Amino acid sequence: MRGRPTIYEDANIIKKAQEVFWQKGYSAASLSDLQKATGAGAGSFYNTFKGGKKEVFQKAIQERRLAFDAFKKELSVSESPLELIKDFIRSIAQAEQNDHLKGCIIANTVVEMTFIDEDLEANAVQILKEVEQMFTEVIKEEQTKGTIKTQTSPEILGKYLITFWCGLNTLRRMYPDENVLKDQIEMQLAVIS
Amino acid sequence: MRGRPTIYEDANIIKKAQEVFWQKGYSAASLSDLQKATGAGAGSFYNTFKGGKKEVFQKAIQERRLAFDAFKKELSVSESPLELIKDFIRSIAQAEQNDHLKGCIIANTVVEMTFIDEDLEANAVQILKEVEQMFTEVIKEEQTKGTIKTQTSPEILGKYLITFWCGLNTLRRMYPDENVLKDQIEMQLAVIS
DNA sequence: CTATTTATGTATCGATCATTACAAAAATAA
DNA sequence: TTATTTTTGTAATGATCGATACATAAATAG
């Protein structure tokens, strides 16, 4: 392989860029911010990502999808997948104050991107729908097993969970307080039992 | 009163500016956008609003608070205030596609403003908390009257509603479809009865 | 009328935006 | 070694950002 060796690897740039996007959102994150965070100058940056800022953002979003896929794998081998989902939602209450303010980057993106960039909005919506579908499938499964008594359709309950997820994304900014969130989460999760 | 007569009245500028902010959010709405929408040039704009873009945004936000106050007044003379609240939430399902995408400007602002402008974020959070308190009070009242059977505390139920409100703000962008939203809303409202 | 006051329209400010141009650096291939 | 390839660092691009400067328009006060 010829050529000057790579210092700033793709994966690392994306990881660092994700942090910036998570804090500031897409529009407010400047190339200057990204270059400062990643260490890479404009040369390396555009050499690596011909698509510029938008491409890096999409890759940062996809990175989250991978994290979500990993969770889905965990679910598939779990004996009580619904409890795993509930525990994951419960874990939000214990997040740091800073993480409460940041919220979920995918849910944030759906809100930010309306009328701004429909590609990026569609990407984020798609991921949320995948998460919703995961919820729905697990609920359906548990209903068949008889672990859940509720007769409400799994589709409605799946949408109930993704709606709660997105609502919690704002509630935690209103009340970045573990106890408040904990009570709220328990009450809402109790609906599915 | 001396001086050249005013063509572009404050109230009208705010109203037109609100539409722009609602569509694009704060950051993405440029002064150029605002001037185009309001008709007022930079001269009139900064003569009227010394605080510039930020001041106009704050006034546009306060405008929404007034609309909310009006609703609160309706509630106070209603015989079944909870039903009024429920109907208001139900009315979201029937909104136009465009309105689904725009969502609630206050909820949007909370998400957008994190780490961007803490004044504007605090304004929006404050309004959401006022709406939440309105929910809580009405629920408490109806519980005392015995109209509601649920024993869950009004504080939790109030937060449940504001969380749902914010969650719906994203769900309606995922599914700008009246029937989907209608079913979802009925299921979630049934929790409070 | 003239003086004063206020609003408007336009030109322009410096800063920053995302992106590009390009030469030097640093590796391998021949 | 020399030629080639790729990455890096820096300078500069034109566009647009929010905001200001300022002359003029258009009213009233005296």
Automatic annotation (TrEMBL), chains A, B:
Keyword Transcription (UniProt): yes
Keywords: DNA-binding, Transcription, Transcription regulation
Superkingdom as given in the UniProt entry: Bacteria
Domain Tetracyclin repressor-like C-terminal: 90-182
Domain HTH tetR-type: from-to ranges: 13-58
InterPro entries per UniProt: Homeodomain-like_sf, HTH_TetR, Tet_transcr_reg_TetR-rel_C_sf, TetR_C
Pfam families: TetR_C_13, TetR_N
UniProt protein name: TetR/AcrR family transcriptional regulator
